[in-house]
Amino acid sequence: MCSKLDDIALISSTRGQIQQKVGSLGTNSKGTGLKINSEKTKLLRLNTSNTERVQVEGQDIEEVQSFVYLDANVSNEGGAEDDIKARLGKARVA
Question: Do 75 and 56 share a structural domain?
């Protein structure tokens, strides 16, 4: 039986380092009954010209321009403007 694990952020300086970390996470998680869901795994690149694909268990990880992590908006453009706008929008609804 596989358990569910959410919201892990891996940060690396190079594509090789992130590929190694993803591989190690996949290998080590199997030993505890966990599995990385490659369809839900996302990759955000910052300040890089390297476009080599990163894979989890042989499947390419989808690249995105932004995502929400622990209720904060993270973007490859940096800054907090999008996050502040989203929080203000949520406050208006409440």
Answer: no
